[in-house]
Amino acid sequence: GAVELGVGLTWYYFPRGGGDALEPTVSIGGSLGPVDLSFGFFYDLETDGSYFELAAESEIELTDTLSLVPGASVSYADSYYGVSGFNNIGLSLALPIALTDTATLTPYVAGSIAIDALENLGEDDHIYGGVSISVTF
C-alpha cells in the first residue's frame, strides 16, 4: 500500500570502547508526492536508551541507470548514550547507479550538524562519505 512498516535488528561492535550493542528498530514510511518520508524508533538494549529519527528524501532520475537523491533528517534521543534532547540534523546526497536489474552501486556524501543536546555536550559537526552496494533477490 501507500505506507511501509519495517522492523529490524542491528548489532554494533565497538572494538575500541569494548562491548557490543543490540538495537531493535521499528520504522514507518510513505510518499508524499515526490518526497519519501520516514519515521524510525531505535531502542538500544545495552544502554536502555531510545533514538527517534524523522527523514525525507527525493529521487531525481538523471538517466535510466543514474539518479540523484538528496535527503535530510532530524533526530531526538532519550537517554541514548547519555544524550537526551534533539540530537542532530543530517544532510545527504547520494548518486545511485543501477549496475543490473538487481544490483545498485551508491556513492554518497553526508553531514551531521550537532544541535541541542549534542551541541551542548560539545559535539562537532561531521562530514563523511562512502560507497555502498545493494543486491536484491
Major beta-sheet overview: 10 strands, antiparallel
Give the N-terminus to C-terminus distance in angstroms: 21 Å
The helicity comes to under 10%
Q: Strand tally, please? A: 10
SS-derived structural category = mainly beta
Instruction: Give the strand content.
Output: over 45%
**Number of helices, counting only DSSP H or I runs of 4 residues or more:** 1
- Give the overall shape: globular
Q: Whole-number average pLDDT?
A: 94
- Radius of gyration, in Å, reads 17 Å
In terms of quaternary structure, the protein is single chain
Ranges where pLDDT stays below 50 over 5 or more residues in a row are none
H/E element order: EEEEEEEEEHE
Molecular structure report:
The protein has one helix at residues 116-120, and strands at 3-13, 20-32, 35-44, 49-57, 60-61, 67-80, 83-94, 97-98, 103-114, 126-135. The protein has 137 residues and is mainly β. Strands 1, 2, 3, 4, 5, 6, 7, 8, 9 and 10 form a ten-stranded antiparallel beta sheet that branches. The longest helix is centred in the last third of the chain and has 5 residues, at 116-120. The protein is globular, with a radius of gyration of 17 Å. The mean pLDDT is 94.
What is the topology?
Layout: E1 3-13, E2 20-32, E3 35-44, E4 49-57, E5 60-61, E6 67-80, E7 83-94, E8 97-98, E9 103-114, H1 116-120, E10 126-135
Antiparallel strand pairs: 1-2, 2-3, 3-4, 4-6, 5-6, 6-7, 7-9, 8-9, 9-10
